[in-house]
Every structure is written in structure tokens, then in C-alpha cells.
Amino acid sequence: MRSILRILWRFITAPFRLILWLLRKLARGFHNVATDIRDFFLYEEEDTPLNDAVSAAVANPTSILEHLDALRKHLFRCLIALVIASAISITFTKPILVFLARPLPGGFDTLHAIEITENFGTSLRVALLAGFALAFPYIALELWMFVGPGLRRRARLWGLFSIPIGSLFLVGGMAFTYFFLLPPALSFLTNFMGIKTTPRPANYFNFVTNLMFWIGIFFEFPLVVFLLAKVGLVRAEQLARQWRIAIVVIALIAAIVTPTIDPANMSLVMAPMIVLYFLSIGLAFLARRRKPQP
């Protein structure tokens, strides 16, 4: 009889015990998050020389495995955020497709698919780009939370405050591509040699999303240089001395990214990248500028 009552009692109290277990798990999770946030803002990393840090890592390989495990967790959360943002974006795919097709002569109605899965695959690709732009602040936060603990507290805060600016730079690069680069590029491509062009959704949107993605990433360069200068890995003098090499590299990148072979459209990609490079030199100088001692 006593065992029956015990079983009955456990059965009746099971929902309450489950709720209590969930509350404890949530409380522990919030406590861990609060501890990580506190350490991120208040903990001051010891200034260890690079050679000593490499020697310590070689002497204790398990520490590298711990960092790899932490990186795996951060990347997994980034992937989840990207999937959620892409799932949200896919519900707005049609308006996004219509918007991206506006620079094309004739707009969205001129596109004709010739494969059964072409429209579906194109929609997923566009949703992935929109999801990346939407999830970029969180992805940048996760990556910085992985890198930040190894930096000085001041550098960690600078990186944290730079995430919203980085999101604006990404959107700015995509907007530059859409409003200034696509119209002349499409005008050249669709009228080349006087041959009538009937665009396909897969070809057109792959071309547009690839261009918008990479130009948006390139617009992050000044901010990345600023943060690297803040932690002492880059100096403005080095960048200024290597400006000729930088222009050659920029020309090669522009030739790869630019969808056309004419100098006009290639210059449209090179010009903002060169401006961004020299802007990076100025930001690197400001990052390492020391206040005069009283």
C-alpha cells in the first residue's frame, strides 16, 4: 500500500517537479550568462607576450582543445541564428525578389525560369542573404565573445560597441551595390553586342546576391582595421607605406568580384575600396593615438 501511495504521489507531483527542474535550469543558465557578461566587461586579461602564449599553448595542448570547443559552440549558435533569420526572411522572399529585380530593364516580369527547381533554389539563396544581413549583429557578437576574452578590457568594449557600426557598414555596402553598381553593370551586360538577353532567375539573383554579399563584406574593412589597430596588430604607418601594393590587390579583387570586364564597372568597385583603404589608415591612426600626458 505504501509503495502504491508513493507511486501515486510521484505521478501527481511529476508536473510540478518538471516545472521546478526547468526553473532551476533556466536560473543556472541566466546565472552563467550574467557571469560571462560580468567577466566580459570587468575581467582584465594579463598582458602576455605572443611568444609566451604560443609556448604555453604548445606545452599544454589541452588548452587548444578547450578553445576549439568554445569556437564550436559559438559557431553553432551563429548557425542557429542564421537559420532562424533565413526562415523569417523566406516569408518575405517575393517582395525581396521584386525589389532586387528593379535595376533590371523590365524588372521582375522579364525573368523566365527554364528549370523546375530554379525558382525554389533562387528563393532560398535570396532568403539566405537576407537572413545573413538580419543575423549579422548576433553573428558578430558571438565571434567577438569568442575573441574578446583574450584581449584587454578596453579592446573588448571597443569591439562590442563596433558591432552596430559594422552592421551599418554591411548594409551600406549592399546599398552601394544596389543603387550605384548594379544599374551600369546590368546596362552593359544586357546590351552587349546588341544581342537580346532574357535573364533567368537563378543566373540573375545569383549574380546580384554574390555581388551584394562581397561588397558588403569589403565595407567592413575599415572597422576591422580599426579594431586590429586598437589591439596593436596593425599600425597606420604600415598601411600608408604599402598603399601601392594595396591598390594592386584591390584591383585584383575588383577584377574577380566585378561581373563585367569593362574598366568602367571595375572602377565602380575599385573606387570605394580604395577610399575604404585610406579611411582605414585614418582610423588606424586614431586607434593608436595617445592622449598627451599632463
Shape designation: flat
Largest sheet: none
Strand content: under 5%
- According to DSSP, the number of beta strands is 0
Computed CA radius of gyration, to the nearest angstrom: 26 Å
Low-confidence stretches: none
How many helical stretches?
A: 11
Helix content: over 70%
Query: Structural class, from helix and strand content?
Result: mainly alpha
Distance between the termini: 85 Å
SSE run: HHHHHHHHHHH
| Mean pLDDT across all amino acids | 79
Report on this structure.
The protein has 294 residues and is an all-alpha fold. The protein is 79% helix and 0% strand. It contains eleven helices and no strands.
